[in-house]
Design goal:
The protein has a domain at about 1-60: Roll (Urease, subunit C, domain 1), CATH 2.30.40.10. It is built from one helix and five strands, in the order E-E-E-E-E-H. It has one helix spanning about 85-89, and strands at about 5-15, 20-30, 35-40, 50, 55-60. The longest helix is centred in the C-terminal third of the chain and has 4 residues, at about 85-89. It is elongated and about 60 Å long.
Amino acid sequence: MATLLIQHALVLATFDSRRREISDGGLFVRDNVIEQVGATSDLPPTADRVINARDMVILPGLVNTHHHLYQTLTRAVPAAQNAVLFDWL
């Protein structure tokens, strides 16, 4: 099992319901699954790979859910091809 420890971040922003900001924070990952988030002192002391995040901020991935996937459905619709968007809608 591959493990990763990111430790000593200036701040770890959880964006959880309590909006916690953990000073000297970090996270522990095993096989690409985050197992623990918290203060560095509460995390395992070592891992296969250790990243010192001193003077850095850890925050959740910012996922862009804006997409145009639905437009692939209209590629084969002749009325939608070369149509002015608002006229077509």
